[in-house]
Amino acid sequence: MKTSVVKKITFCAAHRLHNPEWDEATNQKVFGKCNHPNYHGHNYELHVKVTGEIDPSTGFVMDLNVLSDIIKKEIHQKFDHKNLNLDLEEFKNLNPTAENIAVVIYNLLRPKISEHLELQIILYETPRNYVIYPEK
Amino acid sequence: MKTSVVKKITFCAAHRLHNPEWDEATNQKVFGKCNHPNYHGHNYELHVKVTGEIDPSTGFVMDLNVLSDIIKKEIHQKFDHKNLNLDLEEFKNLNPTAENIAVVIYNLLRPKISEHLELQIILYETPRNYVIYPEK
Amino acid sequence: MKTSVVKKITFCAAHRLHNPEWDEATNQKVFGKCNHPNYHGHNYELHVKVTGEIDPSTGFVMDLNVLSDIIKKEIHQKFDHKNLNLDLEEFKNLNPTAENIAVVIYNLLRPKISEHLELQIILYETPRNYVIYPEK
Amino acid sequence: MKTSVVKKITFCAAHRLHNPEWDEATNQKVFGKCNHPNYHGHNYELHVKVTGEIDPSTGFVMDLNVLSDIIKKEIHQKFDHKNLNLDLEEFKNLNPTAENIAVVIYNLLRPKISEHLELQIILYETPRNYVIYPEK
Amino acid sequence: MKTSVVKKITFCAAHRLHNPEWDEATNQKVFGKCNHPNYHGHNYELHVKVTGEIDPSTGFVMDLNVLSDIIKKEIHQKFDHKNLNLDLEEFKNLNPTAENIAVVIYNLLRPKISEHLELQIILYETPRNYVIYPEK
Amino acid sequence: MKTSVVKKITFCAAHRLHNPEWDEATNQKVFGKCNHPNYHGHNYELHVKVTGEIDPSTGFVMDLNVLSDIIKKEIHQKFDHKNLNLDLEEFKNLNPTAENIAVVIYNLLRPKISEHLELQIILYETPRNYVIYPEK
Questions:
Q1: CB contact, 8 Å: B122 with chain E?
Q2: How does pLDDT run across D43-89, given as a tens digit for each residue?
Q3: Which residues on F lie below 8 Å from C2 (Cβ)?
Q4: Could you tell me the sign of the dihedral formed by the alpha carbons of B85, B91, B93, B97, in that order?
Q5: Per-domain boundaries in chain E
Q6: Cβ separation A95–B2 shorter than 8 A
Q7: CA A4, CA F89: separation in Å to the nearest integer?
Q8: Do A99 and B136 touch (CB under 8 A)?
Q9: Which CATH number fits the domain A2-133, given the four candidates 2.130.10.10, 3.30.479.10, 3.50.30.30, 3.30.70.270?
Q10: Which of A80, C23, C42, C100 could join A11 via S-S bond, C-beta 3.0 to 4.6 A?
């Protein structure tokens, strides 16, 4: 039977939701106040879940300190205290919705974590809105 | 790969647990203080999870503002500041346990959400008791 | 310098807000959905704060297990899984607002706690509404 | 003895910390990553505390629905999904630190709340940083 | 469709991570400060999830008071205010990582819960680290 | 009017409550399971509150990054992943109750923080027990 381990971290970032192929009225209609041109922001709470077998010599699925270092280097340094639309190459042509941020984080972490471990991202945009990727 | 989005809301309601086909002693034995005839109540915390593909034009699985409006209209108006046993048709012949409340909420929301999206209800009755329906 | 110790417990109860000296329209206008005649309910989260000097032989202001037993006996047994309006003598002629519940709890606990210790009640009615009595 | 009632709300905003009278190096040294020119953001959690006597006819210090409406109109509409530096007149010449945001919110709410009630602002910038104004 | 019910409890325990087959330097390198010889400790938050069909006569998957009594007897009495390494037979030859604690709890509870119900353990070691066993 | 800023951190430690001047039966009677000889442990959540005037050039009462560095150096390095009874000189002759831990933390931090700022310690031993020192 498999076991999962989860590490939670927080990052603070600004963003706005916008589709450049639409006119202003459509953007406003679809994204509402999230389309505000001067940006707004969130304390994003990120859970990184890694699933696999427990290594009998350590009792770990994966050392959470190692996982924590990977998340700090690959995600926290890149996302924390940044403007997702302006500062991150990944969102130059991708709308920074919570769903897309979760996919981007997954794609950044996936190559850094052993292939025989599964990876799942849970991302809270606010205490009342969150996303899960990939969902089983 | 699928993605889930989750919206959380709170509603406050009174209820009691009771099976009218049983005598008082059996009700008391099975349901204990939850059987108290004058009712008691909870701040129910409801998570509504919707699972599907990310729409590339919006970056959304489903617009959480639309989901929020559906939950307000179909669930919050019906359940909040109500007595579940006395005020809701759905519990006239159904014991309002957390499990049954979750099933009723699922059945109320299912027809309002696109068929190609999956739906799951997570319902906290207290910070220490919660239910999930349907479980995979 | 003084030190405070705080014990938190939860109780679940039904209530309604109502002033019997007012007509229905006034009650509805002032108390809104909290006036619903069939009651609604909450998970009340109660913090009991006791302030005094640290006893050098124990390192305690007051033994929290003793405080916990007093709260269970005087408050939890009386309030948990009850209808505050119908079941508690204290609210026969007193509207069970969060403010008044805090005052009632204070008055029930005050005689059970040593006179040279100060007492303060913090009561969450919902995660977004709370009261403090007495405020300094 | 006085009683306090507290209402909590959340708003999401972008900001940056910056003193225009300092050169870039000093701003960077003092404010670190909070000085990032493209802004970052937070889910601010605001507690508004009002202190006074309980009105015996209502059992309220102040009707929390009335307080909630005042907060929505005076604070939430102005701060939520905004860039504090660019969108709010109040921060044109004032650095939007959590301390200064709390003072601004106090000054906006003070004239809207009865003079015989005391007012205090508690503002969480992140789950690990918060401010209180005025402190007693 | 299946439904899950979850009960949360907390226990407080001391532990250290250590592999007796390794020398001190390797233990220190792999387990870091968790290897501290005098032990450290945590408030473990345990979620016990039970999955099955809702019994139409009770509206319960499983009576949470019964589940709660089983958890108190089999887990809380054994783990709370204990040193996992020194006091529990189960960890005499097993490193008390969060993963292994979850497996031990699963194995203790599994025989006490009806065979036609599924069981899953979610265990928070800190608010920022948690494990799930078995993961689907 | 004064303003407070608060920084929260967590540390994990083992301890036991014990008065060496008492016999075993008295220790057991007063401290119950907290007297367990092999220790138990907690995730302590520490709030450090600093109160003073807002500096108009920074908008800060005190730079929370500076405060955070002081707490890491003076408290976190000393307390985290330690056994309070065995590893800390301060508890060689002092019972490590939450009250006494708060006083020790206050005394360690007080000389490191500007004299014209007030200091207060709030320490959660569990999510349901906490202490405040000094209380006003």
A1: no
A2: 999 999 999 999 999 999 999 999 999 999 999 999 999 999 999 99
A3: 134-136
A4: negative
A5: 2-133
A6: no
A7: 39
A8: no
A9: 3.30.479.10
A10: A80
